[in-house]
Design brief:
Blueprint: H1 5-19, H2 24-27, E1 57-59, E2 65-70, E3 73-79, H3 80-83, H4 93-109, E4 114-120, H5 127-146, E5 153-158, E6 169-170, E7 173-174, H6 176-182, E8 184-190
Parallel strand pairs: 4-5
Antiparallel strand pairs: 1-2, 2-3, 3-8, 4-8, 6-7
């Protein structure tokens, strides 16, 4: 589910106001709200959060594709489960269809410059294996895009498990859905202003 920056900011403000009220009643759920004195006052702190830390992201209904924009840079993410077979770096026929949409987006929106292709894995397997697999996958996507986008400069990098999108393990247990979203290739390019 994607949230607008305004909705995210409003939600954050509501949480901060509830957490920062300074009232013991908030900390003690056994105190009924009407037990507070009528003249109760609450301290509100000035909070400043850098707005650039809020990066809105849209995601496909099945969670296999995402897009985010930060400044003049767009990141299109495709999960590796759509692009590749397990532990492979050869694009599937379905991947070629998905990449055609990325080609169209780059053709219409790119301001030029280098298009970065970044491969990522989950936390399963060793670092050396994940680094090599993520790089091979990024290179496979680069090769497919190069064939469709003449004159574009590409840079492929593999980050292994070092940049997870979501935590692979929550409360000591692996999360299958998070791992699936961490196995991805991201295409990053500058957009026209």
């Amino acid at each position: 589910m994607s949230r607008s920056p305004e909705r995210t900011a409003a939600l954050l403000l509501a949480v901060v106001l509830m957490a920062g009220s300074g009232s013991a009643a908030w900390a003690d759920p056994t105190v009924p709200p009407d037990a507070l004195p009528a003249d109760s006052t609450f301290t509100v702190e000035d909070l400043v959060f850098p707005i650039e830390d809020i990066v809105p992201e849209t995601e496909s209904m099945d969670g296999t594709e995402s897009e985010s924009k930060r400044g003049g840079e767009v990141t299109v993410g495709l999960t590796s489960d759509v692009l590749f077979a397990l532990d492979k770096a050869v694009l599937t026929p379905q991947a070629r269809q998905r990449l055609q949409g990325v080609v169209a987006k780059i053709q219409t929106e790119s301001a030029g410059g280098v298009v970065r292709i970044e491969g990522h894995t989950d936390d399963q397997g060793g670092d050396a294996y994940n680094d090599a697999l993520s790089l091979k996958r990024a290179q496979a996507v680069r090769q497919a895009l190069q064939g469709k986008l003449a004159g574009v400069t590409f840079q492929a990098s593999g980050y292994g498990e070092r940049r997870p999108k979501l935590p692979n393990i929550v409360q000591g247990k692996p999360v299958k859905e998070n791992r699936a979203r961490n196995r991805r290739v991201e295409i990053v390019f500058n957009v026209k202003q």
